[in-house]
Specification:
It contains six helices and no strands. The protein is mostly helical. It has one domain. It is globular and about 45 Å long. The termini are far apart.
Length: 150
């Protein structure tokens, strides 16, 4: 229960930060990505602030043996760059450039009462379910072919 409460508070704080920094405004994000037009550097300052906070706080947080409300840290262990990583990053970047949203800000932007974030979140859910179906299907096919070979 404590973990869920902390996750809710962190999510609300993150959403508040996105709102205050206006990162839920797709025009502001698209303005940052438009380097040949009227470039808006606001996102650069938000990113720099986030990186600074992370660099400072992770030094203290990761000195602990475990988080406050969990028995261990869950940090990524994969260190190689492979095709799924590059393809996923490319798809994410194209979606961000086309829509002006990424998952976090799109969910927060649902409170604006406009259709753009609603359509994006629907597409996000559809894409996630499609990937889940594909990866499950792919694993079954690989397991079946492995079983037939042995």
């Amino acid at each position: 229960m404590k973990q869920n409460l902390i996750a809710l508070i962190a999510g609300l704080l993150f959403g508040l930060g996105l709102s205050i920094s206006q990162m839920i405004d797709r025009d502001r994000v698209l303005g940052f990505l438009d380097v040949t037009g009227v470039w808006d550097p606001t996102l650069l300052f938000v990113l720099a602030g986030a990186v600074a906070v992370t660099l400072i706080t992770f030094r203290f947080v990761l000195r602990r043996s475990h988080p406050l409300f969990s028995s261990q840290f869950y940090l990524p262990t994969k260190q190689d760059i492979d095709i799924p990583l590059v393809a996923g990053a490319a798809i994410f970047g194209m979606g961000w450039g086309i829509a002006g949203y990424c998952p976090g800000p799109s969910i927060v932007a649902l409170v604006l009462g406009i259709w753009n974030p609603v359509l994006f979140v629907i597409a996000l859910i559809f894409g996630s379910l499609t990937y889940k179906w594909y990866s499950t299907r792919k694993n079954r096919v690989e397991l079946t072919s492995y079983t037939k070979e042995n």
